[in-house]
Amino acid sequence: MVDDTHLVLRALKGERDKYGELVEKYQKPLLGLAFSYVQNYQNAQDIVQDALIVGYRQLASLRQPHRFDAWIRQITINISKSHLRKQRRNQQQSDCSLLMLSADGDLSAVPEANVETKHRQNLIRKALAGLNPKHREVIVLHHILNYSAAEIAAILGVTANTVYVRLSRGRKALQRELINVFEDDLHMLGCEAHLYLQRLTEEIKKKLAAENPREQREAAGQLRLTAARANHSRLLADLAADNSKIRLEAAEIIGQTEEKRLIPPLLERLSLESEPNIQIRIIQSLVELEAVEAVPVLEELQRQTIHMDVHKQCGKAVRCLADVKDSKPRAVPITTADLRDAGLDQIMIQMLEETADPVTMISLLDGLGRLGTAKPLKKVCDLLLKVPYPQVRRQAAITLGQIGTSSAFIMESLLKAVLDQDWTVVDAAVKTLADLTPKEQTDVVIHALLDVFWDSLSKPFPVRFTLAAAVAKLADRELKWADELLPRVIQELENYPAKAEYQKFHASRVLCGLVADLIPPGFNDLNEKILNLLNTNKFVTIPPLLLALGYSKDAECIATISTYLSYEAPDRRYEEYGKQVRESAVRALMNIGEAGWPRLREALMDSGTSDHAKLSILDVWQKELSLQQIAELQGLDVRGNARFLNKWQLLLRKAEISSIP
């Protein structure tokens, strides 16, 4: 095939037929390019004709004949843009034409016989018409006309990096537009969930048939996300979990679900969240959900936050949401019952039986847990005890908790998992036991957990906090457990010298926490021993001991707790512990109730109370008081420095901020 340079040079010498060859070569690709702008076949033909005429007249100005391709395309783009500017008020929409773009840029009529293909092409054309023109032109040039990024850069007169950026943004925008137009189509048909799941099932089966590990991972990830979308209650529970990793993952999944119904709880969580990385992830999810109603909340958070990354993310989110023109529900509503009816749980179980990839296993286990199906319980228990990957065993324990069945076989498997060598597996198994254990098996499970707990005190074992919390939860402050366990706990504490090594102090802290969690309301028999421990143990054990005293109505205990409101750590390195001591004193007085609250109010109004003490009171109240309780504080005559007074005003405004829809 003769190259462009030869044809251009011959055409410049007066051989018109050579320019005719150039016209024949580029007419169809130029037609596709023009159509991507004007979305009208007749107008596109006129633009191409004008571009070729201009090209012939200005051919002498082409200094690099080998770049005729890029030069003539740029002329076509310029004329297309000029046409759009002239016809902006009455330009035609994409559905005015029943033509399609073929792989080589040709435009041809859609066969009447192929109704489904014609319908899909119309939907795709509508999606393309909804794109930003800069994004649409690179999408057409690259994916339809098969030009490389370097060639597109030469045609448009931009850098290759700019082309890559526009391609990336254009693909994401096209995906959103496709979801919109396909969902509109589904709603018109009135069977959105059925069609959505039918397409998803076909796509999953296609990926599985490829027998490619990467494809299988993607399929498992899709199934997991779909199960998460179908189980809103689980997502919302995870969003409010104590574990920050679970909250972070839930916020990320919510952003991917495209469920507008999850925006209000996401906003509520944002107003309560204190960890900057989770705040940032929630803000990103709000942008992904196109939550335009979140703008007032984000602007308020931007004014309040002292964290620079959160401040920047709020500003970025507000700018992004300001560009959202049409915010409407896009996600097809589905339920866990829909997924089971579509047979997706069977597909997940089959994949779990066949795969050996740990990432795929984790996604499938999480998806099955969110579906709540009891069919794969035996397989999940086998994975919990036998699979060599600790992260898979951990997810298996979590999945058993999500399914929520407490059969003898399940309980036996979980009790074996408590003895696992990996502490993350033990942590997950203990939490699941605390949630699933039936009343009749409480004694057996508590004693099994205590065997591991007492052993954990003598060695580095991060899960000891989880063990103590599980024992306390199962004991449920029953007096019999206080009688049985508290003497051993006190004995362990008293055996630790005042200056023990770092690990023993943390073990002491866990033991003190267990004391606080085991004491039944009104149980004052240990007050004297706890008061002695306060004086003999290091400050890291003080917070849980104060909480233990918080169940007493004794005047001496109240007075002792009050003295710790102004506690200061003995060394600047331990200022964080000092803050924990003060906040624990606040919570202890709040737990005491009517006898404790006056002490807190007096501390705020007393000019002799340290600023650290007052700020600690506000920090706790900010997290734990209800809106009604905050309203009751309006009349207090508080005193303090500027930082305290500013925080006080923010606390009083919390009800107003939280009520923003």
Overall SS class: mainly alpha
**What proportion strand?**
under 5%
Strand arrangement in the largest pleated sheet: 1-2
CATH hierarchy class name of the domain at 4-189:
Mainly Alpha
Just name the CATH architecture of the domain at 4-189.
Orthogonal Bundle
- Could you give the distance between the termini? 65 Å
Low-confidence stretches: 89-116, 185-191, 497-503, 657-661
- The general outline is elongated
How can the largest sheet be summarized? 2 strands, antiparallel
User: Averaging pLDDT over every residue, what do you get?
Assistant: 76
Per DSSP E runs of 2 or more residues, the count of β-strands stands at 2
Count of runs of 4 or more consecutive helical residues? 36
Describe it for me?
With 661 residues, the chain is an all-alpha fold. Among the domains are: 186 residues, RNA polymerase sigma factor, region 2, helix turn helix motif (Rna Polymerase Sigma Factor, Chain: A), CATH 1.10.1740; 117 residues, Leucine-rich Repeat Variant, CATH 1.25.10.10; 109 residues. 71% of the residues lie in helices and 1% in strands. The chain has 36 helices and 2 strands. The chain has a two-stranded antiparallel ribbon with strand order 1-2. Helix 7 packs across helix 8, helix 10 crosses helix 12 and helix 19 packs parallel to helix 21. The longest helix has 30 residues.
